[in-house]
UniProtKB/TrEMBL annotation:
Gene3D superfamilies in the cross-refs: NAD(P)-binding Rossmann-like Domain
Organism: Meridianimarinicoccus marinus
Top-level lineage group: Bacteria
SUPFAM superfamilies for the chain: NAD(P)-binding Rossmann-fold domains (SSF51735)
Protein name per its UniProtKB record: SDR family oxidoreductase
Similarity remark: Belongs to the short-chain dehydrogenases/reductases (SDR) family.
Amino acid sequence: MTFAGKTILMTACGQGIGRASSLAAAAQGARVIATDINQAALDSLAGTEGIETRLLDVTDAAAITALAAELPDLDGLFNCAGFVHHGTILDVSDEDWAFSNEINVTSMVRTCRAFLPGMLRRAETTGTAAILNVASMASSVKGFPNRTAYGATKAAVIGLTKAIAADFVTKGVRCNALCPGTVDTPSLRGRIAAAANPEQAEKDFIARQPMGRLATVDDMTPTVLHLLGDGSRFVTGQAILVDGGVTI
Ligand code: NAD
């Protein structure tokens, strides 16, 4: 599937799934606007053919509006930024709840609202444009221990995805959600390191994956490209599980 002629904005490209997805889309010929809150992490992408880096904090509403006004109409929007709060509902303060909602859900509301008008214009010409929101298997799909704020906000991402898909299904803009299993990324490594017993924590993360291993970011990118590309032109409003069989 070629992405030649397509412009795609991606969030959280500094590391993990976002970084791998920006490299994969650019390798297929896309013009990728790779954004992140961390300039140093973005700098490591600089010079890659097809990638332009832009500093963007997805919780900064004004910055999102300004970027949308400046960029050309998009063919694709990949909302990847997210945050994992660890704890049961007894551990979720109002501030934790607000922060998880802000970064995991409100950010996507804002980017979709800001970039959708341009995507609708683009779809009038090309026939299709695609939004892909990163949710999780920990969401409305399945409950996990110590993931109250995370699971609830990722469930909201799936609801948001379906609502957008329903509203724009006749206008050429599709909207889907990616629901990864446990992916070996720097933030997962951080969660393992922060555990009381990191060795056991790693074993526990692997044990919940029936395939007996963590996903790599390269296990995610083929599905990311599929859902952002024309090969999925008849797919919208879906929460696609790439979870190594956790939710069989
Ligand atoms: P990560 O957490 O390792 O990296 C996240 C990136 O987001 C970093 O480059 C960071 O600088 C950036 N970031 C943080 N706050 C930001 C902000 N306010 N604005 C813009 N960028 C910001 O990445 P990951 O583990 O690949 O996770 C990416 C997405 O995948 C998240 O939505 C996460 O919830 C989801 N997810 C991850 C896993 C997993 O096991 N890693 C599983 C399911 C879902």
